[in-house]
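Two proteins were folded this term; both appear here.
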Amino acid sequence: MVHENDLKVLRDRIKQLEENLKVVYSKLDMPYPEFADPMQSPQVQAALRRGDKVEAIKAYRELTGVGLAEAKDAIDNAL
C-alpha cells in the first residue's frame, strides 16, 4: 500500500531529476524535451502533417538525442 507521504517523496525526487536533466541538456547545448512523448511535440507533428518524414526524424532526434536509426524507427512506427 502506497502512502501519501511516499508519493510526495517520489514526486519531489522526480522534480529534482528533471531539473538535473535540464542542466545536462543545457550543458550539451540541446533543447530540453518538454513533452512526455516527443512524438506529440509541435515540431514532429507539423512535419508529419506535411508528410516530411526526414524533417520529422530530425525534430525527433533534436528533442530526444537518440541516434538516426532509433529516430527513424520511432517515426516509421508512428506512420
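Next, the second protein.
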Amino acid sequence: MSSFLAPIRMVGRGALQALTAVGRAGYLGTDAVRALRKVDLWGPHLVPQMSRIGVESVPIALFISMFTGVVLALQASYTLTGQVPLYFVGALVGKTMILELGPVLTGLALSGRVGANIAAEIGTMRVTEQIDALETLAYDPVAYLVTPRVLAGAIMFPMVVILSIAIGIAAGWGTSMALLDITSTEFIKGLRLFFDPWDIQFAAIKSITFGVTVTAVGCSFGFHTRGGAEGVGQATTRAVVISSMIILVLDAFWAAVLLS
C-alpha cells in the first residue's frame, strides 16, 4: 500500500512546493511594486544594473543572433530552391528573426547569463546574512536589491533584442550575397515584402515581459535561498530552468493574443 501511495505523495509534495514558490514570488512582486516610491533606495542602482544586465549581455546575444541569421539564410535557400523566387529568403530571414528567433533565443540566452547571476548574487547575500543586515539597518532589501534589477531588465531586454534582430538580419544578408545566388537588391526586396512595423512592436512587447520574467525569477529564487552554498547552486539552477520555461509559455501566449 505504501509503495502505491508513494507516487501520489511525490506529486502532492511537488504541487505544494510549486504553490509555495508562486506565493512567495507573488508577495515579493507586490513588495517590489510598492518599493517603486522609494526612489532614493533603488535609483542609484538602476544605471549600474542596466549596464550589467544589458550592456554586458550584448556580446553573447550578438554571437547567437549572427549565427542564427547565417543558418536561416542557408536553410531558407535550401528549402525554397526550385519552388519560389530566392528573394523570399530575405522575407523568411526578416520575419523569423523579428517575430520569433530574435526575441526567444536572446531571452533564453540571457536567462542563463542574467538570471543565474542574479540568483547566485542575491542567494549568496541571503545565506551570508547580508540581507538580514540590510533589514537591521532599516533598509528595505526589496527596494535595494529587487526593484532596480527588474526595472533594468524591463528597460534593457528590448534594446538587446532589437540589436540582436538587426545583427541577425545583417548576417543573413551577408550570407545570402556571399554564398547564395542572391543580390543585395533581391534580399532587400524580400525583406521589405512582408515587413510590418507592428512586428517590431510585437518583438519589443515580448522582450519586455521576458526581461521582467528573467530578473524577477532570479530575484525570487535568490531572495528565498536556504542551505548555504548548496542552496545557492540549487536556486541558480531553478531560476534558469523556471525562467526559460516561462519565456516559452509567454512566447506562445503573446503569439495567440497579439497575432490572432
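Residues 40-258 form one domain. The chain has one domain: 40-258. These notes refer to the second protein only.
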